[in-house]
Amino acid sequence: MFKRVLYFLIVVNGYFSFYAQTDSLIKSKKHKLVLGNDSNVVFSGTRIVTKTDTGSIHKIELSGYVSTYYAHYSDETQSSNGFVQFPTMAPRNNQFGLNLAQIGMEYHDQKVRGNIILHYGDIPETNWPKPFTLIQEAHVGVQLVKKLWLDVGFFKSHIGLESIQPRENITSSMSVIDFYEPYYFSGAKLTYQLNTKLSLQINAFNGYNTYVETNKNKALGFSVLYDVNDRISITYNALSCDETPDNVKTKHQRFYHNLYGTFKLRKLSFGIEANYGTQKNSKLFDSTKTASINSALIVLKYQVLKKIGIYGRGEYFSDKNKILTGNLNLGNYIYGGTIGMEFKPAKNVALSAEYRVLKCEQFIFKEKNYLTNQRDEIIFCLDVWF
Description:
With about 375 residues, the chain is mostly beta strands. The protein has a single domain (about 1-385), classed as Beta Barrel (Porin), CATH 2.40.160.10. It has helices spanning about 1-30, 120-125, 175-180; strands spanning about 30-35, 60-75, 95-110, 110-120, 135-145, 150-155, 185-195, 200-205, 220-225, 230-240, 255-265, 270-280, 290-305, 310-320, 335-345, 350-360, 365, 370, 375-385. The protein has a 16-stranded antiparallel beta barrel. A two-stranded antiparallel ribbon has the order 17-18. β11 and β12 (about 270-280) form a beta hairpin. The protein starts with a helix and ends with a strand. Mean pLDDT is about 90; it is low at about 20-30 and about 50-55.
């Protein structure tokens, strides 16, 4: 652990040394050096097309982000790793923790683009594959023809409404739905932006939520993003993959469909997501039959005052044949509700407090040496970014 912290600090030091040494050089050329300054990044984390400057002036953007928390859960931590069930954001019980400390650099001009984000904290510790826990994103892209881009490398997931960066979500916790969706991909994307409203993408990855290939199969996907206007957006993602080991004869082809919409009004932010998936030869009581999975999510925030907002979320997840949940038996369903409040004393600072309850058909939570089907959560989160 000490070596990882030391390595991260060395990278951070080199990052800002690079900034200091190259600032004057960049300004002397026809480049534009900026610090990331987006104050409202909610719902931006999983878009297949970002609103990046594509003008003739070269753009290099440096960014930083720190997310901290204190969390209390009614259930006990798991003996295997010291985290609670569904450990993504704020996974440590009854203690202060660090969700993320990350630095990023993005380059963009008319023909070439690239992005690298390094991160450290509980989110990569609980969910990222070794030895790549330091890398959140690292990819480069080239414009093949006008409006058509090819990007290759390590990507943060584009599937699902919620992002692994807490600042890009309304809530401080992540839903069970997005816990079982991919966090990251390794592969290539071909993106075509027809106009300012409609964008299409086809992609090929090593697999479902993996950087390194685990078999001879590849995950193939298709995405459509439609921006109705500046306030309303609709996204559809489809992914087909087979994660069966090569030495297993019976294959398990998976088809996953993800549809979500986001709406931003003057005081109201609103998001809704629906998912449906199938996997061949996967029914628990008849392994020759196709099994299914479905889930839904709704989240909204209302800006009561200029700096104060209240929010809520409802979630439902069903995977009775354990397509994604594996050894964890949820039964037919798990659902939850979240309420919270956010205070933003500055544009790039967010302090939130939320309560969440999860209820499962099966008794999967352990509380005071007995099993229960319900968990209560209280999470405080402080995010600062530039």
